[in-house]
Structure formats: C-alpha cells, structure tokens
Sequence to fold (52 residues):
Amino acid sequence: MTKQTKPKTKKAQLMQLLTRKTGADVATISEKLGWLPHTTRAALTGLRKAGF
Fold:
C-alpha cells in the first residue's frame, strides 16, 4: 500500500522556486508551472502585495 501525497499548490511551487538559492526568473517560473508570462507576473505581484 503506497501513501499518496497531496500535490503542492501552484502558489507553494512558486514560493519554492523563489526561495531557491539561485532564485528564478519569469521565464523559468512560466516553464515550470505551465503559465504564460503575464500570469507569472500577476502571481508575483500577488505575492508581493501579500508581503512575501
């Protein structure tokens, strides 16, 4: 019997990419999360407004 883990949210994945030692740019985030660049920029703005 295998234990299934709940998949990470996109927000959690985004925060993980940003907290890497090397950080991440818009192109990298867009590719990893399957987002268009304008979606990535909007998500970054949302995190900034939330105090991240």
About this structure: Residues 22-52 form one domain. The chain has a mean pLDDT of 90. Residues 37-49 form the longest helix (13 residues). The CA atoms of residues 3 and 9 lie 18 Å apart.
